[in-house]
Amino acid sequence: MNTLRHLPVPISAALAMILALSACSSASSSGKSSSSETSQSNASVSTADNGSPSASPLTTTSSSASTSSPSPSATSKALTDDNKAGKPRPTSTYGESISEGATIHEDGSWDYTNSSGTLHVKADGTWNWEGNNGDKANLNADGSWENFEVHGNERSRVNPDGSWVQVRDSTERDLIKGAQGMEVKADGTWREVDSYGTYYGTADGKVYQERPGQEKHEVSKESTPTWTPTPPVLYAPGGVGGNSVIPLKPRTPLKAGEKAE
């Protein structure tokens, strides 16, 4: 029986389980008068000599995605069969030994539970995570994914085409009037709202700023935010042993100004 070590702790330290979530930051782009970033500890999976998954911590990073290479669990801008349901999922690469804490069902779906929460993976590779501290995440059949982080009160949703929205300190799921956060649309337009004002990006690459008491005016393109919601990082990309299916991988969100393929 395999044992998953360094098991999950609340997301404020390191959201893990079979997966670890890095929540989106509310970091403002360079050149703005305000910026805030939430640092999180993430976790990755290494493969032990016996082929079983064993968790090992990553370096603490900002919870927003940087401009560097995308996470291994992420893909290019295009949605692939590894991001959405529809084709039979391959099964575990870890042999017949089943990871401790995992329950595998006849159809290949499986559950994993520990002191931090529970992960449910369906036979089609879709999954949902529920943390005991209230954190939640899920990947849907159409390739969209969502997460909610209690620490920071942030809700993020990434659509199949890569467009996305993140809302902070609100029960709303969309960036309606009065809400703070950011959204990027499939046509490359974007909007970021914080307590200081609003930044807009047009499809042709122009950037505008609007603040209370001021008219909207064009600003430098360097004001374009570079962060995106960080895709959930799979802890066990090869499943948990036995006939367990390999979970689907979250697609990469579009960056501000990027157009969907």
TrEMBL record:
Keyword Chaperone annotated: no
Protein name: Lipoprotein
Region (Disordered) residue spans: 26-109, 207-261
Bias (Low complexity) ranges: 26-78
Entry superkingdom: Bacteria
Organism of derivation: Rothia aeria
Compositional bias annotation for Basic and acidic residues: 207-221
Swiss-Prot/TrEMBL keywords: Signal
Tagged with keyword Signal: yes
Signal peptide: 1-27
